[in-house]
Amino acid sequence: MDNELKIFLQSFKELENLFQALPITEDQFQRLKAVLAGIQRNAKHLALYDAITHALNSRAGKWLVPADQIKGMAKVDIYDLRQANKVYGVPVVDSELHKLAYQFMSIFTLDKGDFVRRSPGSDEFRIFSTSKTPREIKRLLSKLYKNQETDSLLTWDFGVGLTETEAENELQKQRKTFRPLVLRQTILESHSEIPKRVEEDNNYQNWNEFNIPYERLMDTIRSLALPSTLELQTLEQVRITRDIVESIVTRDALTGALNGLGAKWYLENATIQAMALTDMLNMHEGNNRYGSAAIDQDLKRFANLLLRHFPKDEGFLLFRSERAGDEFKIVSFRKGVAELEDRIRSVWNGDLHRGLLGWNYGVGRNDAEAHVNLYRNRLNEMESKEMSVLNGKSTFIIVRPESEDYPDLYRLSEDTAHAVGGAPIVDLHMTLQSIRNVEDFDALRQCLEEYSRKLRPFEIKVRNIARMNVNNQQGRLWLLAERSAILETLYNDLSEIARRLGCESYPYKPQNWLPHIKIVELPEDGSTRIKDPSFGHLQEITFTVRRLEWTVQKEQDHWELLEQFPLSK
After folding, report:
1. Among the listed ranges 367-381, 388-402, 438-452, which one has the minimum average pLDDT value?
2. Strands 327-332 vs 359-364: parallel, antiparallel or unpaired
3. How far is CA 186 from the centre of its chain?
4. What's the farthest any 2 CA atoms get from each other in the chain?
């Protein structure tokens, strides 16, 4: 059982048990129990449902969805939601999202073992079913899909499968068939499409509406004429339950940052000295490249970074947007604009290239000023990138685990990092070959595309951990892959492609190549200059590779995606 769910249920159960032990009549007990049941229903609603669409939220995925019983799933992706917000306006799009969610939830109902879920600010819905196969889900969604042009202002596509990767692949296949390619504007636009304040949303229950049932329950307890000590104990337990519920329902389940409900409760009539807005760059493209599980982990990493540097006890609160899940807001009740800007600039500099997604920030006395500053900072960074010249010669062919395999590998990275006092690696991948001194990128792209068509998905098995130090750099831990014929073939074939195009590849022979995934960055004082292949021996982990990824090194420890090549089925 999820730990947060356990705490939630236990708080209500302890309160009910306390009521049962009170020296009161059965009728009085049933009255208290009925009020408590109403409070619990409201608490579950606040904890588990998306305020905008009323679909289940991320927390519901952990509390309600039985992962081991899922027979099929679907991914629904809104086509260019940001553009829809600009064309129709945020209130209209919110209404359309709500309507679309209602249509999905009318077809896929909880009583039939179906779950319709949406993450904060996401342009995706996920449908999980314990009773329907992918084929049945596709049949039910197809009719809705055909009628969308007349039924909705929003255009969407879907894919079904047994796993996240299967559903995503089917979705992309459908999109390529029916939709034109969205070409993003290279001129950055301001964030005027972002709702002016996340807390100014009338969909959220206000604090009084939430608190009044608890106050009424406490009034009822006071009317029972209990012994003074017992009354105080019971009232305190009600307050503890309320505080537990408040701490859960006001926080985003994934990142731990405060959500839109928290913004409404804690910022109403508050005196704010300064605020900072952050925006993760290219999250949609990041989901396609790394997989949603890896991006979720990167969002958690980023939120923890902000929470660590902007703690509540120093007068800061951190919020995650409910309409744009790649945006966070830092509110300062003590520090002014200059001090807040200095601090977040320092955090930004220290975090460059440490996560999967880059990010920008803007600081001001209010939302409007912070948005303008964010826009200017993004524009400045873009101009800086355009001025820098790509050395453009060093490219790498890598593979990475898909979303269903990523969590096991990241859990190993996190556990190992904790054991050795290091930092877990979010970007988990294996480099198959380096192709350097590239002059003709188009020719190399064509060769890689043709080669990938000849390959089928294959498995990689990893087990042993080795401690490495390369070129006197900070030490790291590698997760070594089991040698296999397919890995050796890939290494040799890619080297031959490089040779034919007059490029360079790794200089060592296949038998000296150690295929690996970097899983931990060691602290400076924990680095070593020797290799220790017997560092660890653990249970074998197997993941499936379904695509090759071609990246280019832009600067130290920073690689950008050039192309992905799906492997033939």
Report:
1. 388-402
2. unpaired
3. 25
4. 91
In tens, the pLDDT along 61-116 reads 889 999 899 999 999 988 777 777 777 888 888 889 999 999 999 999 999 999 99
What is d(CA 125, CA 458) in angstroms, rounded to the nearest whole number?
29
Tell me which residue of 423, 379, 401, 50 sits closest to 190, measured CA to CA: 379
Identify which of 161-165, 327-331, 366-370 has the greatest average pLDDT: 327-331
CB atoms within 10 A of CB 461: 12
What integer is the mean pLDDT of 4-33? 94
- Domain range 270-387, CATH architecture: 2-Layer Sandwich (3.30)
CB-based contact 301:291 (threshold 8 Å): no
Whose structure tokens read 């596709």?
138
What are the CB-based long-range contacts (under 8 Å, 24+) for 472-476?
472/529, 474/521, 474/522, 474/523, 474/524, 474/527, 475/521, 475/522, 475/526, 475/527, 475/528, 476/518, 476/520, 476/521, 476/522
Cα gap 389→399, rounded to integer Å: 27
What residues have CB less than 8 Å from 239, skipping those under 6 apart?
A: 214
Q: Tell me which residue of 332, 547, 294 sits closest to 413, measured CA to CA.
A: 294
* pTM value surpassing 0.85: no
Structure tokens belonging to residue 136: 């049945």
| Contact in structure between 318 and 330 (CB atoms under 8 Å) | yes
Q: How confident is the model at residue 528 (pLDDT cuts 50, 70, 90)?
A: very low
Q: Do domains 58-178 and 270-387 have the same CATH topology?
A: yes
At 394 the pLDDT is: 83
Residues 395-566, CATH architecture: Alpha-Beta Complex (3.90)
Token representation of residue 348: 């930004």
For residue 133, the one-letter residue type is T
Both tokens of 2, joined, read: 């999820």
pLDDT of residue 390: 45
The dotted CATH code for 58-178 is 3.30.70.270
> Residue 128 corresponds to which tokens in the numbers above?
């999980």
Domain ranges for the chain, please list them: 3-48+202-249, 58-178, 270-387, 395-566
Q: What is the identity of the amino acid at 119?
A: S
At 180-227, the pLDDT tens digits run 544 333 333 444 333 344 434 556 788 999 999 999 999 999 999 899
